[in-house]
Write a structure and sequence with these properties.
Layout: H1 2-41, H2 45-58, H3 63-75, H4 79-92, H5 97-109, H6 113-126, H7 131-143, H8 147-160, H9 165-177, H10 181-194, H11 199-211, H12 215-228, H13 233-245, H14 249-262, H15 267-279, H16 283-296, H17 301-313, H18 317-330, H19 335-345, H20 353-366, E1 387-393, H21 400-411, E2 417-423, H22 430-436, E3 441-443, H23 450-459, E4 464-467, H24 477-481, E5 487-490, E6 505-508, E7 524-527, H25 546-550, E8 554-557, H26 566-577, E9 583-587, H27 594-606, E10 614-617, H28 622-627, E11 634-636, H29 645-652, E12 657-660, H30 669-676, E13 683-684, H31 687-698, H32 701-716, H33 723-749
Parallel strand pairs: 1-2, 1-4, 2-3, 4-5, 5-6, 6-7, 8-9, 8-11, 9-10, 11-12, 12-13
Helix pairs in contact: 1-2, 1-3, 2-3, 3-4, 3-5, 4-5, 5-6, 5-7, 6-7, 7-8, 7-9, 8-9, 9-10, 9-11, 10-11, 11-12, 11-13, 12-13, 13-14, 13-15, 14-15, 15-16, 15-17, 16-17, 17-18, 17-19, 18-19, 19-20, 21-33, 26-31
Length: about 750
């Protein structure tokens, strides 16, 4: 009994002593903890962690120390450690809404969004009026694609804390995801009114103004954000994107390079490097950057699309289309892939009118159909009034498209038509100044979002809005999808149709778009003498036929390299091999790129043509470009994508063009021009006929000499080449469209 009493007393004594020790340790922890919090608040995370670890060494389950340690790990980027520590903290104190909220944010940072959502909802179950948890859960829902629910949560947080800048910023991000750019811009401004140096709000402001095309505001916001965090790689890459849109490629590339120096695998920077490479003719750079994107993510729709564009630039159109299709499997509404597929299908031999229009209709279904169409204000329905015509283009400058539409703009009858130019590119040159002088009104539309441009078109009371781009770079078809004008027309810039039900008319011709295929088009076809015309060339005269002095025929191809399909190149090689001594000159600015030049020559060599018989010429002045035709006897039109302006240039310089009728609008455009000026016998029906025509005329230098002297007169006497006659035909179309519209509206009213 005595021993038992002694043992019991010993146990009780030790328990008492342990309790006293624990109490002492807790008191020490309570003294140390404020120091840890002060270190954390002052940004000294290492000191805060050291203190927390000291506390936890003696008190492993001390909740406050665990919680603070987890927060420090979170803020220093040690996310997996933070997760484990915060889960331990919650196991000790399961009713801490703060701990659940911080664990949820950690899981969010780990991109474990479903788990984050569950934990954040637990935080709110414990503390429903918890602004931080509300807005953090909103961010998680945004990542899960639940943007409307995300906005509701951010707004709940804002109601509880009206000056909560983070919540405003987060709502702005969700609004951006929903493409509510104007609302998002206001939301970011509200966030910055509470915290003017709020980094995320400045970034959001920059990004949304980039989408709205408010470039001055975007640039100022990017620069202010970078003054706060100059080593933010993603921010540098996004500013680079802005410079690309402004056509400032050197500045853009500097930002992309700086971003990649900080983060070598950063997707926006690699995307930018590839894009700039393609835009500036450095395809090798674009190939490297797009391959790096695909190495990180083989299904990346951006990488697939960019690499597809690289393939297209090298003539591999089928490979390019396959990559665009793969991109659309990953992201069915990825606009860049849709647009590039539309563009390059015109270069694919197997594609026909049906395939071309199906791709354009896909753009409408995936993107255009969801855009709200405008309600038009009442207007005068006088069929003989002065019609307001608005031209929308990114090519009011030295660009091949401008060669096609400038003659019409220059010759409009301004007593009957009020002409407004909506310029969608910041790039300007002497041609821009000249074109501006041809209009009655000019709008720098590149500074306007799609909705703002639609607003401006309506405010200008435009009767007929004309698209000059089709699906080419810089187009504003999203504006035409909104139908801000009663009549909409697509003309000249692309010449293949748009697929938009909101586009009323398409200027074409009977050769380019035969009657049998017209039901495939979304637009009603209005025939001009040819799908495009061109300003007469008067400053240079045709030279003598070079074959007479050389003793052999020289063919010329003065077209984009991506137009040179394998089928066309193979046919040209067959032709050259059949004509001893024949040579070919290929001219395009992209041939300044050594990779492209060597690749093209290698393609000819692979078909048996000697390297010495292929001459590649790169970028020159326009005068030098035209003078280069003096070295050419016969031009060879590529297919399936024909030449347009290059066809007119060749004819004006006295060099006839062999072409072949294809099964799409872009593969018949040259034939339309050539037939229009009276050279029907230069238009082939098939490959064999193409070779036969070229061989026939290559054997007739005297005939070529006569043509060289007569071609300009033939052009000026044709309604396609006589730009005065051509313009009057365009204006007849506009008047007919307007009268038909007035009649239909009056009939509806009656």
């Amino acid at each position: 009994m005595i021993r038992g009493e002694s043992l019991q007393g010993g146990v009780g004594s030790r328990a008492f002593q342990n309790a006293r020790a624990q109490k002492k340790l807790k008191k020490q922890a309570e003294i140390l903890l404020p120091t840890a919090f002060a270190a954390y608040s002052g940004g000294r995370h290492a000191d805060a962690q050291t203190i927390c670890l000291k506390i936890l060494q003696d008190l492993p389950d001390y909740f406050d120390a665990l919680h603070l340690l987890g927060i420090c790990k979170l803020e220093t980027g040690r996310l997996e450690e933070a997760r484990q520590i915060l889960e331990r903290a919650i196991a000790i104190e399961a009713r801490s809404a703060d701990a659940y909220s911080n664990l949820g944010f950690t899981l969010f940072r780990l991109k474990r969004y479903q788990e984050a959502r569950v934990v954040q909802e637990k935080a709110l179950a414990l503390k429903p009026n918890f602004p931080t948890a509300l807005t953090n859960l909103g961010n998680t829902l945004m990542r899960l694609g639940l943007n409307e629910q995300a906005i509701e949560l951010h707004e709940r947080a804002m109601r509880m804390k009206p000056d909560y800048a983070d919540a405003y910023c987060n709502r702005g991000m969700a609004e951006m995801m929903l493409r509510r750019f104007s609302e998002a811009a206001q939301t970011f401004e509200r966030a910055l009114s509470f915290r003017p140096r709020h980094l995320e709000a400045l970034v959001g402001k920059a990004l949304v103004n980039l989408e709205l095309r408010h470039f001055d505001v975007a640039e100022a916001s990017f620069n202010e954000a970078l003054s706060i965090k100059p080593d933010m790689a993603e921010l540098l890459a996004h500013r680079g994107r802005m410079y690309v849109k402004l056509g400032q490629f050197a500045e853009a590339e500097a930002d992309f390079d700086a971003a990649l120096a900080l983060a070598p695998h950063l997707e926006p920077a690699l995307r930018g490097k590839a894009g700039v490479g393609l835009l500036t003719g450095r395809v090798g750079q674009a190939i490297v950057a797009s391959k790096n994107l695909l190495q990180a993510n083989p299904r990346c729709e951006i990488g697939l699309t960019l690499f597809g564009a690289c393939l297209a630039n090298q003539g591999d159109i089928a490979g390019a289309i396959a990559h665009f299709d793969a991109a659309l499997v990953s992201k069915p509404d990825y606009e860049d892939a849709i647009t590039k597929k539309i563009f390059y299908l015109d270069f694919l031999t197997e594609a026909d009118f049906a395939a071309h229009q199906a791709a354009r209709n896909y753009w409408w279904r995936a993107l255009g159909a969801s855009l709200p169409q405008r309600a038009l204000a009442p207007r005068s329905l006088d069929p003989d009034k002065r019609i307001v015509v608005g031209y929308v283009s990114s090519d009011f400058r030295s660009h091949s498209a401008a060669f096609a539409f400038t003659p019409v703009l220059q010759r409009h009858d301004h007593s009957k038509f009020k002409i407004i130019g909506y310029s969608c590119s910041p790039q300007e040159d002497a041609n821009t100044v000249a074109i501006r002088g041809m209009t009655d009104g000019w709008v720098e539309a590149w500074r306007l979002s799609d909705d703002e441009l639609a607003d401006r078109v309506q405010a200008d009371e435009v009767d007929i809005l004309v698209d000059l781009s089709g699906h080419t770079a810089g187009h504003r078809l999203a504006v035409f999808a909104r139908k801000p004008a009663p009549i909409q027309v697509t003309a000249w810039g692309s010449g293949t149709g748009t697929g938009l039900p909101t586009m009323d008319y398409f200027f074409a011709d009977p050769v380019t778009v035969p009657e049998a295929v017209r039901p495939l088009f979304a637009e009603k076809i209005y025939d001009l003498p040819s799908v495009i015309t061109m300003e007469p060339i008067t400053e240079l005269r045709p030279s003598a036929v070079p074959m007479l002095r050389n003793g052999y025929v020289t063919f010329g191809v003065f077209n984009r390299i991506d137009k040179i399909s394998d089928d066309a190149l193979k046919l040209w090689a067959e032709l050259m091999l059949a004509l001893p001594g024949a040579k070919i000159i290929v001219k395009h600015g992209a041939l300044d790129d050594e990779i492209l030049r060597n690749t093209l020559v290698a393609r000819f060599v692979a078909h048996g043509i000697a390297e010495a018989d292929v001459t590649c010429l790169g970028a020159t002045t326009r005068g030098e470009h035209l003078t280069a035709f003096e070295k050419v006897d016969i031009s060879l039109d590529p297919f399936p994508q024909n030449g347009g302006i290059s066809t007119w240039e060749s004819l004006y310089m006295g060099v006839p063009v062999v072409t072949k009728l294809g099964n799409g609008a872009s593969s018949r455009a040259a034939a339309a021009i050539i037939k229009a000026v009276g050279l029907d016998d230069w238009v082939a029906s098939d490959r064999e006929n193409y070779i036969a025509i070229a061989k026939k005329f290559a054997a007739s230098p005297a005939h070529l000499e006569r043509l060289r002297a007569e071609l300009r007169a033939m052009i000026s006497s044709s309604s396609a080449g006589n730009v005065e006659v051509y313009t009057r035909k365009v204006e007849e179309g506009y008047r007919q469209f307007w009268r038909d519209y007035c009649g239909s509206r009056q009939q509806d009213a009656g």
